[in-house]
Write a structure and sequence with these properties.
heterodimer, A: alpha+beta, Uridine Diphospho-n-acetylenolpyruvylglucosamine Reductase, domain 2, Uridine Diphospho-n-acetylenolpyruvylglucosamine Reductase, domain 3, Alpha-Beta Plaits, 4 domains, 8-stranded antiparallel sheet, 17 helices, 36% helix, B: alpha+beta, 7-stranded antiparallel sheet, 5-stranded antiparallel sheet, 20% strand
């Protein structure tokens, strides 16, 4: 018996024959950067995940955990790929404690399915995360990738929301960290360590998170500008005011037009909360926008309000971009950075669109070209964009790009002085290099 | 290494003004706010990152244990040198380095006193949210190491939610940057795991903090109850209604009486419980929200409601709350404060169990708690010279931890495990959970020199 068939027969014993795919025609769809797994395995319980990882650990197999695959184009090229571990069968809410405003949910449930259930239960609540592809993205993927969206301006990200999580360590140990209380300093905060760790320190099987009550009212204010500095100035005014929008998004004209709006630049505010506060903020931000010389202002309510933010959140899909870059810089430089990027891209003759969380210092650049025809200029562009982000105390991460580009760039940017600690963490927690080898920062 | 040689070397590294080694100084640095005492072999007060790095490297090269300390307000023995070695006291590094208001960040040295920073920011109209009751003396470094909470954490989160970056000294003396002013730095969230690590992983020499503009409006209510159960049920009902105030604080009768005797803030001494509810944010809709909250209070038999009319009245209420530990401390020679936390809906039944435990062990227990967070602070009062009483105190404290764990909660919400709660870790974590944490410790501090013997229990024993 070949080692490959030994491997799959061991896996079949753990999860049952029906839950192992090894037909090359079908495993192809699970390829990561051109590497096709020998098997796609779908465990149906935490115990099965544990057994699979213990097996992989002893056989030194490379395992890539996967939900619905919305982030498979992100990360470095895997050093090795034996098994794709599909978490989709672990898809239940395990505890929804309505009066405690907390939820425990397994990794394979999609975020949108979670939100629908939450909205429909009792007085209605929500998990305040709005990452791209909410419709398909699974909880495990969103948390492992620390994925976020425009509303992080008010609600922050997973690190400020999660109360605890359960995971399976690379050696097969089933572990639980944190709990379901909103305060907890018992032991190390392993929950935060696991958030955004790209499944490289353990496979997340369940999370416990805080919830928020559904806002009483919501509306959107859109302000178009001909001048970037004025759009930037408006975001600065709001940032330093007492007002509390839930999102403050800045886009260029290309992105605006794809979202169905005119103007060279667009600033969009999501306002949520008690009715009186929503109305007052519409008025006050409207007045601030006028002072800055807004060219056009619009208010969206109801379905229009909802649809607008879904399109912003899922802009990558709306735009059909070939490459997505995420720059993280100090807050006050967001607009300036956008201006700089526009100049660099124009000079290079590369069509881009930009959307940014102006209250968080996060700018996403979407390259709208066939990259294979322009590999070198795109590589050069990414280098220049990165240099500008670093100048603004920040960094640049390639969120999505074709595999061919990945050998020419460092998708996570240059590791910093704390990389030595990350390397040691990976070696301590995953000495056999089982989980996602090579896909994370510095090839860990 | 001989103690004398060690002191000589440290003097050479940081200067004699920054090294303390008299009996009096050992006494001064042998304790924190817990009952645990143990003398360090030497005390160093570095004035720069470079000095911290040199001292840590020296300790590393000679395998000397060390511990970093701030103001020593820790409540779990976390900052006591239980295995001797060098106590690195960070209080001389107390400068605000960068007020980057434009980017809503400040960069501070770890020895900055929390309230001092908040007062400086207030002049500019900005806030650093975490507000541990000890903020008048605690340092930012200590707050981060313990992941300190405070009343406003209900809405704004705890210290580690507000510390976004740091310069740290690793166990071999190497200085590295973690996180920063920008968000989402690629790589593992080292800042996340450093928060609450109680100085067992690294020493912070600079911290980047998130600040925010001061809220437009604040409304503070004092709600007075004849039954503690009604108070607890009010808390559950407010959250259940989908209202998350900035604070939901509660005190029982023993605490109210102690506070009133100490500070005369006007709390009714015959009340069974008081709730301090604060709303903040935009002024719009706040009156309506206040009315909804008061309606819930009335539904749960509130006896009297006082809404603070101005800042002076608000300050008075908060002075009473923040001085609670100190006031209770006047009642008996010692107190031991528990920090168990439960899902907030289980607060009333947990409280009833705490009262039973007090009766069982014949110990007076004063209760102050962050009710909205489900974070209890039962203060067990005693006299440590009475050995029998002391034994009962420890037994009661352990039983309270167990109750909180059984309620689906945890043994510490904000005070830390330190040494005091080490034996409770197995109530909430399996040996495998603790083994994973130990691997993190090994990655940061392979020689186990940084604050050894804290946070993580012996796994064999735990099993």
């Amino acid at each position: 018996m070949s080692s490959e068939s030994q491997m799959t027969s061991a896996m079949k014993e753990i999860v049952g024959e029906a839950n192992v795919i090894q037909d090359p025609d079908r495993t192809k769809a699970y390829a990561v950067d051109g590497l096709t797994p020998k098997a796609v395995v779908s465990p149906g319980s935490v115990e099965e995940v544990s057994k699979l990882l213990a097996h992989a650990n002893s056989e030194k197999l490379a395992v890539v955990p996967r939900g619905n695959g919305t982030k498979m184009a992100q990360g470095g090229v895997p050093r090795k790929l034996d098994v794709v571990l599909s978490m989709l069968r672990l898809n239940r809410m395990t505890e929804h404690d309505v009066p405690n405003l907390s939820l425990s949910v397994q990794a394979g449930m999609t975020l949108s399915a979670v939100q629908e259930k939450l909205a429909a239960t009792g007085k209605g609540s929500f998990l305040p995360l709005d990452p791209p592809y909410t419709g398909q993205a699974t909880i495990g993927g969103v948390i492992a990738a620390n994925s976020s969206g425009p509303r992080r301006y008010l609600y922050s990200t997973a690190r400020d929301l999660l109360l605890g999580l359960k995971a399976v360590s690379p050696n097969g140990d089933v572990v639980a960290f944190g709990g379901k209380t909103v305060k907890n300093v018992s032991g190390y905060d392993m929950t935060k360590l696991m958030i955004g760790s790209w499944g490289a320190l353990g496979v997340i099987t369940e999370i416990t998170t805080k919830l928020l009550p559904l806002p009483e009212a919501s509306a959107t204010l859109l302000a178009s500008f001909d001048d970037l500095s004025k759009a930037g100035s408006l975001t600065r005014r709001v940032l330093h005011s007492v007002l509390l929008p839930s999102a403050m998004e800045l886009t260029d004209g290309n992105a605006a037009s794809r979202l169905g709006h005119a103007g060279k630049y667009l600033v969009a505010f999501s306002l949520e909360g008690v009715g009186e506060a929503v109305e007052r903020q519409l008025v006050e931000i409207g007045e601030m926008a006028k002072k800055e010389g807004v060219s056009e202002a619009k208010v969206f309510r109801g379905d229009q309000d909802r649809a607008f933010w879904i399109n912003v959140r899922d802009f990558a899909a709306v735009a059909g971009a070939s490459v997505i870059l995420k720059s993280n810089v100090v807050i006050s430089k967001t607009a300036e950075l956008l201006g700089m990027y526009e100049k660099i891209a124009q000079a290079a003759g590369i069509a881009c669109a930009y959307t940014g969380h102006a209250g968080n210092g996060i700018l996403k650049s979407y390259i709208m070209e066939n990259v294979t025809a322009k590999t070198d200029p795109v590589v050069d562009l990414i280098g220049r964009f990165t240099a500008e982000a670093v100048k603004c105390d920040g960094n640049l991460v390639v969120e999505s790009c074709p595999s061919g580009l990945k050998t020419k760039i460092s998708v996570w940017g240059q590791p910093r002085s704390d990389f030595a600690v990350m390397r040691r963490l990976k070696d301590e927690l995953d000495p056999a290099g089982v989980l996602n080898p090579g896909r994370f920062v510095g090839g860990i | 290494m001989e103690k004398e040689t060690m002191i000589g070397e440290l003097v050479r590294l940081v200067g004699k003004d920054n090294v303390l080694h008299s009996e009096m100084h050992y006494k001064l640095y042998e304790y924190d706010a817990s009952l645990i005492r143990s003398k360090p072999d030497c005390i160093v007060l570095p004035t720069s990152t470079e000095q911290v790095s040199k001292v840590v490297k020296f300790a590393h090269d000679h395998k000397i244990r060390l511990i970093a300390r701030g103001a020593g307000t820790n409540l779990s023995g976390g900052s006591v040198s239980i295995q001797g070695g060098i106590a690195i006291v960070m209080t001389k590094m107390n400068q605000i380095l960068d007020m980057d208001i434009e980017n809503l960040r400040v960069v501070v040295q770890p020895g900055v006193v929390t309230l001092d920073l908040k007062n400086v920011l207030a002049k500019h109209g900005y806030l650093y949210q975490p507000d541990p009751a000890s903020e008048k003396v605690t340092t930012i470094g200590g707050n981060f190491g313990e992941n300190a909470g405070g009343p406003h954490c209900l809405k704004y989160g705890v210290t580690s939610n507000h510390v976004l970056g740091a310069e740290i000294v690793l166990s071999d003396g190497q200085v590295v940057q973690v996180g920063g002013k920008a968000l989402d730095n690629p790589g593992y969230d080292l800042m996340g795991v450093l928060g609450a690590s109680e100085g067992t992983l690294a020493i912070v020499t600079k911290a980047v903090l998130r600040i925010m503009p001061k809220a437009e409006a604040v409304k503070t209510m004092l709600c007075i109850y004849n039954s503690i159960e009604d108070g607890g049920n009010t808390v559950t009902a407010i959250i259940g209604e989908g209202i998350i105030p900035a604070t939901l604080e509660m005190m029982d009768n023993l605490t109210i009486k102690a506070v009133e005797e100490a500070y005369r803030v006007g709390f009714p001494t015959d009340a069974a419980a008081i709730l301090i509810i604060e709303l903040d944010g935009l002024k719009d809709g706040m009156e309506r929200l206040t009315e909804r909250i008061l309606e819930i209070c009335r539904l749960h038999n509130v006896r009297e409601i006082r809404v603070a009319k101005d800042q002076a009245e608000r300050d008075k209420i908060w002075a009473g709350r923040k001085g609670a530990f100190g006031a209770v401390g006047r009642l008996r020679p010692n107190y031991l404060v528990n920090d168990g936390t439960v899902p907030r809906t289980r607060l009333p039944e947990t409280l009833a169990r705490v009262v039973e435990i007090g009766k069982k062990y014949k110990l007076p227990i004063a209760n102050v708690f962050h009710a909205g967070d489900g974070n209890l602070h039962p203060l067990i009062l005693f006299d440590e010279r009475d050995k029998d009483e002391l034994e009962r105190v420890h037994a009661a404290a352990t039983e309270i931890m167990k109750v909180c764990a059984d309620m689906g909660g945890t043994i510490s919400g904000e005070h830390g495990i330190g040494l005091e709660k080490l034996h409770g870790m197995s109530m909430i974590f399996s040996p495998k959970d603790i083994a994973a944490m130990k691997r993190v410790k090994a990655a940061f501090d392979p020689l186990n020199l940084m604050n050894p013997g804290k946070v993580l229990p012996d796994t064999e024993k735990a099993a």
